[in-house]
Please model this.
Amino acid sequence: MADRLEIPKDIIEAVKNLDLDSLVAEMEIQPRKIYVRKPMPKKCRLGFGARVRRLRRKMHVTQMELGKIMAVSYQHISKWESAHTYPHNVYIRKIEELESQYGIVRQD
Model:
């Protein structure tokens, strides 16, 4: 059995006498800041989701499979297709590369 650590009695008394409510009030705890990705600009919103969906259907893959190919989750693919979010430039380039591989012509 391991030796027990002896806590001095004055420390035990100090801990017993702590007023936790006043300590919490003094700390002034701030709410956590939530970061939300900005939505896609309105002028770009039309068409990009359709491009991703058209590419995915041409490749005959599911959102999950396309997500694995692009190294993102299937939720990202779903949000791109439904125009809830817009991907980073890296993923836009990957989509353009896949479109060129599969012979899909951009229809802007």
